[in-house]
Amino acid sequence: MKPSLPQSLESGLRVNRRHFFGRGSTGIGVAALASLMERKGLLSGTGPGMKDARMAALPSLPHHPAKAKRIIYLFQNGAPTHVDLFDHKPGILPLHGKPVPESYFKGKRFSTMTGDPSGKLILSPVEPFKQHGQSGAWVSRFLPHTAKIADELCFVKSMHTDAVNHAPAISFFLSGAQIPGRPTLGAWLTYGLGVESDNLPGFVVMTSVSKGTTCGQIFYDFYWGSGFLPTRYQGVKFRGNGSPVLYLEDPAGMSAALKRGLVDDIGAINRLKHARMGDPEIETRIAQYEMAYRMQTSVPELTDLSEEPEHVLDLYGPQVREQGTFAYNCLMARRLIERGTRYVQVMHAGWDQHNSLTTELYTQCKDTDQPSAGLVMDLKQRGLLEDTLVVWGGEFGRTPFIQGDINNRPKWGRDHHPYAFTVWMAGGGVQPGLSYGASDELAMNAVENPVHVHDLQATLLHQLGIDHTQLTYKFQGRYYRLTDVHGHVVNDLLS
To answer: For the whole model, what pTM was predicted?
Structure first.
């Protein structure tokens, strides 16, 4: 009679063909990754669990020399109005209050709030435009600080997208798909390029919204999700009040030695579990314990502004000391990338001006204009702009025609518009002082050098040394990538 096995061990031996190959390939991959990290000197630290905390780059990356090492994405949730901020069209002025010609919108899809655009009246920009800098870039009076750095910026005025509503459009920009579930840009970067810091996450997200706005957007977790990648690659969201990350303080009676030992013991148990099960999420758990341990020291130092000179704080504007504001988050973004964070996503909601162009748009621009420009200037004076790519933009633009009653100026608004809008970039090897592409005379459709969302994504990856067609991950029998099966690098934007 055969001796009986413990139930847990017996169940572990009941492995079907799929589990056998899945677990076998995972084990080989983990061994190869460990070997690679040893060769690159990445398995450093004092405790036994330290070696699991840091994520190494894929061995095939970079595909070519990188111009940028990191990205700060200033994502403007709700869609800034290109018609009122960047896309100067003098031909609109004499057409104010007249219906949009059918040829401009025929066959196009708009949001349900617009409905049939037939008969919609053209709305002139709320504030005048002026050319700025040696480049002569057109910027509205809404954004005086951005106007001052026009020669540092690369304006893409021919962006277009496929989505007409906020959440699908934001997901499309950040993950390459309108339906949630794909890895976002920051997750792809940390998966492909690894991380540069032992003490802070490689992918950090911060959110804010203008006070008193009636058009704030919801910040869904899938905007910084890892999709089908292991969850260790998802973004770490910093809170807008109190401690940026919960549970950074030790409970009473917890000494440093006891804490280190506890983390090591938990890590040892998890490694035994991983050796038996081969589940990559167990590796994530190990890495998260280690990162949390290190962040107890690194985060308080990160958020201590006592050493920041006044002239630097002044660059970001009066809200820079107020946690949870866009200004504060922009400063934190600079401090994060200085300490090795590869990708920082600063999201600010409130741009959804369906009936508040003449009121809340002023507040929105006041809250974001100076911090955005201040970040670019701060990075430049520190020598960081050269290899840091800053991106500013929303998920689509706003309609050149009015939403609402043109005779009721306090309630003027614009609806969602995916067919032409503006995004700007700075640093990271893009051409400064360039205005690329163009919309038609009514800012309705991208007609010159149109740039699709997938094209922008391919270009961002290219600047970090990645061929967007080669950074893939196999899931459910198919190889996926950020740009799906589309996209091309827009070389004209690059210096």
So the answer is: 0.85
